Amino acid sequence: MLDLRDAVFSTWEARVRERIVQARDVQHPILIDTLPAFYDNIAQSISPDYPRITAVDGTSVAAEHGGERARVTVYDHAALIEEYQILRWAIFDVLQREQVDIGHHEARTIHASIDAGIQEAVEAFSLVHSGFRERFAAALTHDMRGPLAASMSGLELILLSNDLTRVKTVAAKALTNLQRMAAMVDELLNTMAFHSGESIQLALTKVDIWEVAKEVQTDALAAHGPRIHLDGRSIVGCWDRAALKRAVENLVSNAVKYGAAGSPVTIRLDNVHERLLLTVHNEGEPIPPDEQECIFQMYRRAEAALSGQRQGWGIGLPYVRAVAESHGGSIGLDSSLERGTTFVIDIPLDARLVPAAPTLQTTNG
């Protein structure tokens, strides 16, 4: 079995990439992960006189595999279980092809090892995702506490004041904070629905994306200074204005947060073959290849965000993906030390062309 390990994993990898959608773009070292060590443990467990009963006996290798699948891939429970099932039959098929005879006891040990490996990997996978959700809940609570406290303080001042001008000013600030909270809740609900297989319910209207981007730039300039640039022209399409604006805000906020301090952040607009290409670019440390898919998943943030203790609740980029894909397009990413980091929203000019078109709103065309 040890001599046939490369043959087994060659067969396994080909089948996994064919059958498991989440595995198709995973780089080879990440896909293989700790499974060769698990395989060696299986070989040891069927070796006479070797002190190992099954492949999980006295080792955490399967649990580590499940944890890594949760941390660095977009696997779900079904994908994790299926790749172990594929491993099971890759082993038996290669042994049969190479005319390696194994007895009933050895076959039962292989089956028992795979079954135990699945159990430990899924348990670890679930624990990691529970941790993601707990951190997400904590971050969400933290981010909502600010506007909630400001709104409550404003309402308390209104109750104590007889100055109508002051009341209106304070009420406007309280309303702004409540609207901010409402937008966060909408963003969360939309992203959760999208990750459950639903499209965001869009209100499609005639939109000039230059006006939307200009509003985002103006707000960002007030918050971050003259480093926010806008390049492009008027491009009119049929989109959900509020959703696109929130998506661009998230990309700009992400660029400011993770880009090199003080470096320019550029929003660029282009119309190519009746598609909108909206890019947001920043300079600074690149996003590692093995994190580039994870950052678009709910509850997940790149390692730089976690290690740097930057605030955020891990919903911004998943929301951007939900908006782009619900418009019939996609969100792309290009990142390197030399080129910087660029996110690209690529959507049709007319989202009504998308099959199963989103909810239409007829106002303004």
Automatic annotation (TrEMBL):
Top-level taxon: Bacteria
Catalytic activity: ATP + protein L-histidine = ADP + protein N-phospho-L-histidine
Family matches, as Pfam families: HATPase_c, HisKA
EC numbers, comma separated: 2.7.13.3
Lineage: Bacteria, Pseudomonadati, Pseudomonadota, Betaproteobacteria, Burkholderiales
BP term (GO), one: osmosensory signaling via phosphorelay pathway
Boundaries of every Histidine kinase domain copy: 139-351
Name of the featured protein: histidine kinase
Protein keywords: ATP-binding, Kinase, Nucleotide-binding, Phosphoprotein, Transferase, Two-component regulatory system
Native species: Massilia arenae
